[in-house]
Design brief:
B: 68 residues, mainly alpha
Chain lengths: 241, 68
Amino acid sequence: MAVATAAVGIEMLEALAIVLAVGVERRMRDALIGALAAAVAVLALCAAVGPALLSGADLSSLRVLVGALLLLFGLEWLRKGVLRMAGLRRRSSSYDEYLEERDALATDPTLSGRDWAARIVAFKGVFLEGLEVGLIVLALGSSHGGLLPALLGAALALCAVIGIGLVLHAPLRRLPETQLKLGVGVALTAFGTFFTAEGLGVEWPLGDAALLYLAAGFAAVASLAAVRLRVPPRYPAEAAR
Amino acid sequence: MIALLRSLRSLILGETWTIPLGVGAAILVAALLRSAFSDQLWDELGGFVLAGMVAATLIGSIFRASGR
């Protein structure tokens, strides 16, 4: 549940940044219409594909499939996190994304009536982030402990993000997003390795506690790589953080 | 539409081919080793072999992206 909460929270934060940027720079109504349409599309896609995916495969194949999916997400988050910690990539900041999106929209003339440009930007942002959320929740829910804890975690994260959205700016700037994403990357990679190996018939020493030593191992590898690659920050704002 | 498809591809596979190729190779090699190892040896060591290959994929993708 904790992994689902963290992963969903971070993804939703990014979607929130895009929706707010569209809402502030164009019209909040169009931003919400785009976001709502994307949320409905993601839910419909998950509802249609999820059960078919879960019931159609045998347990071992499903574990390998889910594990591979989690590994793809987890390793990508870890890779980016290490590069950010090493100063080779700009640090993750939903607030900066919000500012960039707002500036980009400001150069685009507002249309009268229905602002389709704003709706499409909001739709695309929420759809892509939402799809990643859907895949992570389905993957975690299908393999370990059932869908309920993963859905509860996702709901908790959604409430937290909506809360942040209502009192935005300062909280969004204060979140250590780079470290949070690195932590979620470690957790997703550990879960992915665990499920894939189980799908391939492995019996982990210490059972579910294997997740802890796997996470510790991947965190150690990521930390060592970040230390080894560390360079002076390329981006001026990084030095202050 | 093409931009959306590109975004979807990078959403699932990431920004680099190193990770999907590495994950695919790790699973393939693990499946081959499973048939080569005895059941008991695979039970005890298989997970660590896979974890090692995953860690190698991570290190490869990081160093490739950093250009070192």
